[in-house]
């Protein structure tokens, strides 16, 4: 500390201290000042952070938690998560990284021409085959259960962006893995008698002429969603040709910028377009049923197709495009952050489902979750 | 707690500095002790008792060593050093000993010993070495005992060097605990050293970690994987550890304490001997003072000197961890030290030119580091196969994914710092004064950028925390 001290042999007068500080070379003075101001400014920020309520980062205080160090670790996580200006810091750093070396973040890899990819899609998974089998077995059990209740299950795996838009990856190709998650999983499902729809092939074909995914987002864009929806609709029709007919119309809003979730993962959501990979532009489409005869038919007002999906089921007007391509209403119970079975489980437990199950249950799930180890809840059967 | 974290920078450091500044001079050791115990408890609360035990045990034994003479003095020293080494041996080497014994028993068809794996407390190797140096310095008469156990506890647990060094001999700090000065110049110098260290760690070491990890977790690394991973690891380890040492020295200066340097441009060394005089200097000094000299040093002829050198490096390797990879790494270095010594004696040739000597030393260092970084001897063998091109040439996909322009730029910047800074230090006239001044001022924005980077990066502990 630069405050005057009175150790047994040394006394520094305040006036002498000031003079000594002012006599320092400029860079040394600036460094000292910075290392005085930063921690003390930071202390205020840290106190603000620690006083911020945050249910996602609780701090356990008990003898056991203190003894194991969990209290300290949780306190650190709480502080990091709630530090004022943290997003701005991340933005500054990642903007500098992007501008100087075209570097991404821990989660995002930059491709060609401003394309961004989720790094987890590109990771190698040594135990992938075992995890795919476990998931396929789980789905086969569900399929049997649903079949007994008169419900046809259709699995629609939304392919990785990196697989469909591989030409935009750095180097213009997927890493040379020896495994193909998408094809392997389709084969596993077929082998277990589970209906599935191949969304990858039509999307890859379509991607040769027009992008099927947003450049700055992990999800399919409206074109990709439409391609996927048409393939899904075709598969549904093959399983249930006599669905009640409805008419739909699609309107488009004026084109507007659409910054994607990968820009958020890079912390660049508030950075001007000139300093980051530019945001996508989109004329957002909305599909609505003509009149009010939503699914009116054999089962009254209840649509006979249920879509339980992830954020893909909520993006790019996939649901709307599916209804339009099918010519029949589809009830959408997709959820954000559903991962593997996050939207399916509550749908299956819903009393409405139990009382009047749909004829076809479309389960949309992203390819990138398939090679991962099962979550705790996925060790239990899917059907209640 | 690590220095490169917000909890240290924004919570611990300011609160500690406030407490330190408000504490009367005579009680500042107590503030250091309490602050250091909190710092330690943050990382490993369960191991705090062990640290306190070592402090109390060593202080009490040290009192006996100082107060006694002759055989009794030697007996107390043996008890103190033996007790500390026993703790180190149990926590650090018991797993390895039992594992190796069980491997032999297994080969002989015998049942293995049942064994509960022992967890290594953070920083144990460092504070045990500090405790041993205290006892030996008292015995040699090269240091006076501290005023009280508070001063001694503050020396052992001093948070700037508690968990990853540098390893300090007691007599280097004893006087400074009795009296030290606090000046703006010292604080500013400490601030600059801290800033350099944090910038090294965050901007030059951490970005390389994922690429190194990928290369060293590949089951069969290709030639490109193995060479890229090993060169990147050589850079990562330097900036990680030298960065930590800069921060430790800087923090100590801010408290009025001056630590000796721990890195003296080691990658510009033109011989392995010189390399080990410049890399992790405090460990080298400790081993020389407390292992090499007690073994007889160079006082008993060339053969014995060479054996001593070899043994000291092997012990140094083993100190880094209870794994045969570290033992072999120590032997690798010991062998080259001996070889250099023998060749010099035998041929007495003039030193080779720098353009040849530095790459040669670096090649020896890089090849040795394969053992240092690998999980097992078998895996090190696989990396050596990769280096020799026996696992194919091109990068494997999971490594290739992590070879980004950013990381290549970081590697280039690292090389520029390692070789450019010493060159400019030797020839300051090469830079115009304005450029030099701008470079000095640039440290502050660089540091602030490193601090901001902490928000955007995943947790990256210091490599030397594991030792």
Account of the protein in words:
The complex is a heterodimer of chains A (384) and B (467). With 384 residues, chain A is an alpha/beta fold. Chain A has helices at residues 14-22, 26-51, 63-68, 70-82, 86-101, 128-148, 161-164, 181-191, 200-207, 222-239, 261-265, 318-326, 344-349, 351-355, and strands at 6-7, 10-11, 108-110, 116-118, 152-158, 195-197, 248-252, 256-258, 280-282, 285-289, 305-308, 330-332, 360-366. In chain A, strand 11 (305-308), helix 12 and strand 12 form a beta-alpha-beta unit. In chain A, helix 2 packs across helix 4, helix 6 (128-148) packs parallel to helix 8 and helix 9 runs antiparallel to helix 10. Helix content of chain B is 71%, strand content 0%. Chain B has helices at residues 6-22, 28-43, 48-67, 70-107, 124-140, 149-157, 170-178, 184-205, 209-217, 223-254, 272-278, 281-292, 301-320, 324-347, 354-373, 377-387, 397-400, 405-426, 433-456. At the A-B interface, strand 1, helix 1, helix 2, helix 3 and helix 4 of A face helix 1, helix 2, helix 8, helix 17 and helix 18 of B.
Relative strand content of chain A: 5-15%
Q: Proportion of β residues of chain B?
A: under 5%
The global form of chain B is globular
Low-pLDDT windows of residues of chain B = none
Q: Per the principal axes of the C-alpha atoms, what is the gross shape of chain A?
A: elongated
Query: Helix proportion of residues of chain B, in percent?
Result: over 70%
* Terminal CA distance of chain A: 64 Å
The largest pleated sheet of chain B is described as: none
Specify the structural class of chain A. Answer: alpha/beta
On the 0-100 scale, what is the average pLDDT of chain B? 90
């Amino acid at each position: 500390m630069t405050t005057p001290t009175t150790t047994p042999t040394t006394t520094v007068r305040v006036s002498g201290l000031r003079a000594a500080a002012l006599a320092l070379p400029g860079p040394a003075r600036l460094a000292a000042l910075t290392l005085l101001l930063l921690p003390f400014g930071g202390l205020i920020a840290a106190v603000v952070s620690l006083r911020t309520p945050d249910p996602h980062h609780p701090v356990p205080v008990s003898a056991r938690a203190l003894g194991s160090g969990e209290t300290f670790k949780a306190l650190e996580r709480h502080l990091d998560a709630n530090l004022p200006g943290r997003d701005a810091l991340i933005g500054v750093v990642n903007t500098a990284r992007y501008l100087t070396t075209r570097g991404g973040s821990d989660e995002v890899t930059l491709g060609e021409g401003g394309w961004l990819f989720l790094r987890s899609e590109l990771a190698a998974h040594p135990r992938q085959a075992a995890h795919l089998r476990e998931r396929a077995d789980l789905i086969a059990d569900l399929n049997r259960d649903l079949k007994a209740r008169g419900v046809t299950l259709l699995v629609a795996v939304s392919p990785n962006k990196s697989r469909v838009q591989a030409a935009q990856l750095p180097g213009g190709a997927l890493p040379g893995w020896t495994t193909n998650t998408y094809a392997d999983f389709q084969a596993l499902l077929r082998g277990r008698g589970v209906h599935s729809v191949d969304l990858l092939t039509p999307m890859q074909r379509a991607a040769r002429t027009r992008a099927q995914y947003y450049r700055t987002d992990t999800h399919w864009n409206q074109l990709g969603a439409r391609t996927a929806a048409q393939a899904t609709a075709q598969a549904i029709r093959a399983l249930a040709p006599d669905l009640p007919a409805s008419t739909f119309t699609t309107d488009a809003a004026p084109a507007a910028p659409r910054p994607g979730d990968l820009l958020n993962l890079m912390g660049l959501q508030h950075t001007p377009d000139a300093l980051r990979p530019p945001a996508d532009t989109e004329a957002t489409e909305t599909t609505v049923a003509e009149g009010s005869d939503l699914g009116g038919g054999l089962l009254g007002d209840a649509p006979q197709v249920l879509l339980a999906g992830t954020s893909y089921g909520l993006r790019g007007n996939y649901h709307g495009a599916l209804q339009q391509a099918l010519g029949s209403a589809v009830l959408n119970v997709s959820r954000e952050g559903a991962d593997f079975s996050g939207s399916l489980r509550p749908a299956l437990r819903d009393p409405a489902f139990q009382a009047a199950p749909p004829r076809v249950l479309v389960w949309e799930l992203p390819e990138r979750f398939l090679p991962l180890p099962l979550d705790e809840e996925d060790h239990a059967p899917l059907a209640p | 707690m690590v220095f490169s974290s917000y909890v240290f920078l924004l919570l611990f450091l300011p609160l500690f500095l406030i407490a330190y500044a408000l504490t009367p001079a005579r009680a500042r050791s107590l503030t250091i002790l309490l602050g250091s115990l909190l710092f330690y408890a943050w990382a490993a609360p369960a191991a705090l008792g062990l640290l306190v035990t070592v402090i109390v045990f060593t202080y009490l034994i040290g009192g006996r060593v100082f107060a006694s003479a002759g055989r009794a003095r030697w007996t107390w020293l043996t008890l103190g050093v033996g007790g500390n080494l026993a703790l180190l041996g149990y926590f650090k080497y018991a797993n390895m000993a039992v594992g190796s014994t069980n491997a032999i028993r297994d080969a002989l068809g015998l049942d293995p010993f049942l064994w509960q794996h022992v967890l290594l407390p953070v920083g144990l190797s460092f504070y045990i070495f500090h405790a041993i140096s205290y006892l030996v310095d008292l015995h040699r008469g090269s240091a006076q005992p501290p005023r009280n156990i508070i001063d001694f506890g503050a020396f052992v647990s001093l948070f700037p060097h508690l968990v990853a060094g540098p390893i300090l001999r007691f007599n280097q700090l004893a006087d400074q605990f009795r009296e030290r000065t606090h000046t703006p110049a010292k604080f500013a110098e400490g601030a600059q050293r801290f800033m350099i260290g944090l910038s090294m760690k965050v901007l030059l070491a951490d970005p390389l970690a994922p690429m190194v990890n990928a290369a060293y977790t590949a089951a069969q690394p290709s030639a490109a994987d193995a060479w890229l991973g090993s060169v990147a690891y050589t850079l990562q380890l330097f900036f990680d550890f030298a960065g930590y040492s800069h921060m430790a020295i800087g923090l100590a200066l801010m408290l009025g304490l001056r630590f000796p340097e721990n890195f003296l441009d080691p990658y510009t060394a033109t011989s392995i001997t010189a390399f080990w005089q410049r890399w992790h200097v405090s460990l080298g000094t400790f081993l020389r003072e407390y292992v090499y000299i007690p073994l007889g040093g160079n006082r008993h002829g060339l053969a014995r000197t060479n054996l001593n050198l070899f043994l000291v490096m092997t012990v140094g390797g083993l100190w880094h961890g209870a794994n045969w990879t570290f033992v072999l790494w120590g032997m690798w270095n010991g062998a080259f030290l001996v070889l250099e010594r023998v060749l010099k004696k035998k041929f007495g040739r003039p030193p080779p030119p720098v353009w040849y000597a530095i790459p040669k030393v670096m090649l020896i260092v890089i090849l040795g580091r394969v053992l240092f970084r690998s999980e097992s001897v078998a895996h090190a063998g696989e990396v050596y196969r990769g280096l020799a091109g026996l696992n194919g040439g091109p990068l494997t996909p999971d490594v290739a994914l992590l070879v980004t322009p950013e990381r290549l730029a970081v590697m280039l910047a690292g090389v520029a710092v390692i070789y450019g800074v010493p060159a400019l230090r030797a020839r300051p006239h090469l830079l115009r004064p304005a450029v030099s001044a701008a470079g000095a001022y640039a440290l502050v924005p660089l540091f602030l950028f490193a601090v901001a980077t902490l928000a955007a990066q995943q947790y990256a502990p210091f490599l030397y925390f594991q030792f």
